[in-house]
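Moderator note: this is an archived Q&A kept for reference. The question asked for a predicted structure of one protein chain; the sequence and the answer are reproduced below.
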Amino acid sequence: MKFSVSDLLDQLRGDAVLPLTNLEKKLALKTAVEKAQLELALQALAKVGVIASGEEGISRAPNDAIFEARVRSSSKGFCFALREDGGEDVYLRDHQLNHAWNGDRVLVKVTREGGRRRSPEGVVQCILERANTTVLAQVERQAEQLVAVPLDDRLHAAIQLPETDAAHAETSDTAVVEVSLDRFPVGQFPAQGHVSRSLKVQGSEADDCELLLARHRLNTSGFSGRASLKVPAESGRDDLTALPTVLLQGWSAKDAPLLPAVSLEALDDGAQRLWVHTPSVAERLALESPLERWLRQHGEALSLGSSWISLLPGPLHKAAALAAGKSQDALSVALDLSADGTLQHFRFCRSQVQVDGVLDRKGLAALLARKPKARTTPAALKGLKEHLPLLEQLQALVELLRQQRLATGGLELDLPVPPLEPLAELASGLPDQRWQGWLPAWSVDQPLHWLRELLRPAEQALGRHFAALELPGLFLTHGAPDPGQLNDLVKLAVGLDIPLELGSDGNAPAAQALAAAFAGTDRSRVLQQQLREVTTPVQLSAEPGANALAAEETAYAPWCCPSLHYSAIWNQLLLVALLSEGKDRPSVRHKTRLDLSSESCHGQVEWPLFSPSLMAQFQDPMASGLVSRLNGRARSADEVERDALALVQARSAQELVGQTLPGVISGIQSYGFFVEIPPTQVEGLVHVSSLKDDWYEYRSRQHRLVGRKNRRTYKLGDPVEVEVQKVDVLRHQIDLVVPDAAEEGDDTDAS
């Protein structure tokens, strides 16, 4: 079909009734076949109580018993529905999946309420959107039937293939194909598909990139339509070209996302005015244009390790980019910061700026190595010679803002990306937040780490502004970790002989305090990994709220990195509309105008800021599931980047097969323990069946395996020598053994 059930339901939000003809128009259905498919879908949804149909049109049926979720399956076959409204996860038994696969967006009905130690159970009522339209698989014969067995062991169903694909079953066991789904399973009928292409497994870095793209069904062709870009209006722009301005650059790939530039001015009593100048993407886009809708659908730029899948098409990327020595249009904010770094005043504007120089990693390293009052200028800083005082002032401000953030709970973890060349872009990190509920540990020589501190007050300002004016912005919210989980983590640390105690109130310290305590121990990395697992993810929300990671209590709105996230483009579109079309007085009869660009108007606006038609352009997408869709795209982007990391690590481990290496136990399960091998931090499994020197008991509360006979113990954070036996790059699985425990009768004590 041309549309999914998810697309259909996204048009039916709230209590609104939509005429059938309007629904067909919104879904861009033109042919009789497409309209007949819509009618069939509406009949099915009415039968399961999802929609109501009447003479006036179609609407969502009020049904509190069902909710939207995504299916998350494990390799062991356990399935849960992850609620999109943030509620408790619901357990799905095999017979309650109704052919839903891992990643599918579904409607779920709770059939059994949860208890103290039991998750609620539910059943899939309807599959809204399929996540796996293609899969990576290996072809084999099962009971005379040619089938494709997915590489992803979270997909538990084989796919029937036509006999024309039989040649793929005769190749080696490591051959991989991409299979396109022609029919998903229905009733007693299995899934059917066909091989669309073969992929190289033992190939180059480019071949690995193709595997990654195919695994996540990514299309690198970009926007296929005509990118008709608007020309930013010249009137009403603030000329800021005289401000000394620096562009901080942390990426080196040609297709890397655009970054903002910054300026700094000294004010009275130690205060400072920080300027953030962002690439003005929104001024070149028309809301609801084909390009804007395409950007809305794709949501995120994706890092593949050493390259990027750009969000912005080439012409837009080129037009909006800030470059040294060139006067360019931008969106800017003036942030007045007190001597202790507190945001006091702000003012947004459409601007004209000129970047004086670019500070990259080489330049930053030269700046940090430069001695005070040195007369010579390093070669890497020649282009910024006149602005060295500005860079030194920026360095002091960055450290001030960072300490302010840490003091109010912003969490940093020392879990860097391994130093592997194919991961160069990933290792640089991001200048803002996406999904994970923590920030990489501070590196003073990393320009993007400077930038993340400087952008924080800019996005605080826009969040507070939109919240005060009650505008339909996209806000980033983030809550502190659950105190109960932090308490369990303290108990785990105590069990590993780490001197920690619960507070006088019986609760653990804050997450950042725990991270600092862990950093001084010999089990720092594994304990910080455990802390990472209990952090809550960052979420986009239509409602303003606190963001603990950004040390913001009111509202936080992303807008400074529009080539990284569509949410920033949306907020830029709203900001540009406010600055250029916002109604600054109730009527033309009133002579006094409000300054809608600053906080001075807060609490004084008592009239609609936008015309009804303009407001509807922003409200309709929000009502049609924009937030949940963008949250899903952010999760997918993180999955792609984690997969890119795991693929490169597994590839590097192939060279280690047969070698015995030192590692650290990073996880304990009943079936064995995981070991990280530095410096690549590749993780492999020592299966309990390979420990032939004893019978080992799993003690979950103590996070350890203990031998019954010789009392040999393997616990979290222990150093251990392991031999790399086998590497499956496709599944990112590394099999390890402990050499002196692989033979029966070995009584060596390693506790």
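Archived answer notes: The longest strand covers residues 343-354.
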